[in-house]
Structures are given as C-alpha cells and as structure tokens.
TrEMBL record:
Residues 29-108 form the Carboxymuconolactone decarboxylase-like domain. InterPro entries: AhpD-like, AhpD_core, CMD-like. This is Carboxymuconolactone decarboxylase family protein. Pfam families: CMD. One of its GO terms (molecular function) is peroxiredoxin activity. Signal peptide: none annotated.
Length: 118
C-alpha cells in the first residue's frame, strides 16, 4: 500500500491462503457448506448472477469488508460488468449507507426533543 491504495489482489490472496488452511482443519465441513450456499445463492434465477454479484459488492461495501470488495469485484470483472453498472451500484451503496443513518438521526432528534426538557 505504498501509494495509499489497498492491494486487493494481496488481500484476497491472503484470505484464500487462510481459507485453505481452515479447510485442512476441523472446519472443512463448514467451509464446504459455505461454498455450497454461495453456489446456490449465486445461481441464475429471477436475478442473474451478475446482478447478484453487484448486490454482494454493495453489501461488502456497507459492511466495510475489504475481502468481500476484492472477491466480488473480481467476480464482476469475470462476469463482464460495465463501469456504469458498478458505478450505479456504488451510488446506491452510498445512498443507502447514508439513508439508514438519516432515519435513525431523525428518531434520535425526536427523542432528544422529547427528553431534553423533561
């Protein structure tokens, strides 16, 4: 990260290494089941796989998960996502990340107003 940018290739590589180590322990069945769940969740259905990966990227951003961002960005590249698709997904992530905070801030202000003079 000499230039201030995160190296998502290194991040995902390190995570893959750790996952490989876990797979060789008593966690093997758990990891196998997680892989099966991932495969089922990403299968084409009412939503195509690319759309599901865009959703996963948005959730990874919202959860501040560097590994998620790296893995889902790689998948989106593989699936042929466009700059515009990713940019619109990021725009929605910013919008929704701020929206829930605004809702709770409104609730907090209402509570403040009700309690400050009590």
């Amino acid at each position: 990260m000499a230039d201030g940018k995160k190296d998502y290739g290194a991040i995902t590589g390190a995570i893959n290494s750790g996952i490989t180590g876990l797979r060789n322990t008593g966690a093997k069945e758990t990891l196998n089941q997680f892989s099966a769940m991932s495969k089922a969740a990403l299968a084409d259905g009412a939503l195509d796989t690319k759309t599901k990966e865009l959703i996963a990227l948005a959730i990874g951003i919202a959860k501040q998960c560097d590994g998620c961002i790296g893995f889902h960005t790689k998948a989106l590249k593989r699936l042929g996502a466009t700059d515009e698709e990713v940019a619109e997904t990021l725009g929605m992530t910013v919008y929704m990340g701020g929206g829930p905070s605004l809702m709770y801030a409104g609730d907090a202000w209402t509570a403040w107003e009700a309690l400050k003079d009590a």
